[in-house]
Amino acid sequence: MNSFINNFMNVDIFGYFAAILTTAAFLPQLIKTLKTKKADDVSLTTLIMFIIGVLSWIIYGYKISS
After folding, report:
1. Cα 45-31-41 angle, rounded to 5 deg
2. What sign does the dihedral 52-58-59-64 (CA atoms) show?
3. How many percent of the chain have pLDDT more than 70?
4. CB 14 within 8 A of CB 56
5. How large is the average pLDDT for residues 10-34?
6. Confidence (pLDDT) at 6
7. Residue 24: what are its φ and ψ, rounded to 5°?
8. CA–CA gap between residue 15 and residue 61 (Å, rounded)
9. How far apart are CA 3 and CA 54, in angstroms?
10. What is the pLDDT of residue 3?
11. What is the mean pLDDT of the chain?
């Protein structure tokens, strides 16, 4: 039973991490757009956070066999 709980917690970490990153990924872009008053370019931080978040969703989905 303890092994199940540890495995569950390890898998859930990917899910929570992915949820936080993919939700918050656009905050750097929003802040940059508000500061510069231009939306011409995309923040590198936004792209990196979003890509890591999506990869975490993939890992999470794989780990729960979804």
Report:
1. 60
2. positive
3. 86
4. yes
5. 84
6. 62
7. -85, -5
8. 8
9. 27
10. 65
11. 82
